[in-house]
Amino acid sequence: MGVAVHVLALIACFLIGLALIFKGLIFMMVLVSLYRQKCSFKPHRWAQLKYSSEQGWAYAQGDGDLTPITILPSTVITTRLVIIHALNENQQWHAIVIGYDSLADDSFRQLRVNLKVLD
After folding, report:
1. How far apart are CA 68 and CA 86, in angstroms?
2. Euclidean distance between CA atoms 107 and 61, whole angstroms
3. What is the CA radius of gyration of the chain?
4. Rounded CA gap, 81 and 18, in Å?
5. 3-state SS of the chain: helix, strand, coil percent to 5?
6. Which pTM was predicted?
7. Which terminal residue of the chain, N or C, has fewer Cβ atoms less than 10 Å from its own Cβ?
8. Nearest CA to 96 among 59, 62, 44, 66?
């Protein structure tokens, strides 16, 4: 979607009634925006969130190892969305966003209950 919008913006650069120098500047700004979007894009990776009574919460993204996290009280839990605010073992802050449609209904409900009860 983002690429299509950039392509449309590039086409529009040539259709607007401005001097060639301004068209070129706008064209370059759109190209820089497209490049920044491409560099910041991270493909969706599987994530794993796990709780054990001995070790607490742990989180892994992609093929990474599970790392212990501390769930912060600022975590947001709604019927459609869970935004987990967490600190890892290096005290780096993370936001883990989980939509209701990314899990089975029962699993999402169970996650919401566990987050409310266990922390």
Report:
1. 10
2. 18
3. 21
4. 45
5. 45, 30, 30
6. 0.61
7. N
8. 59
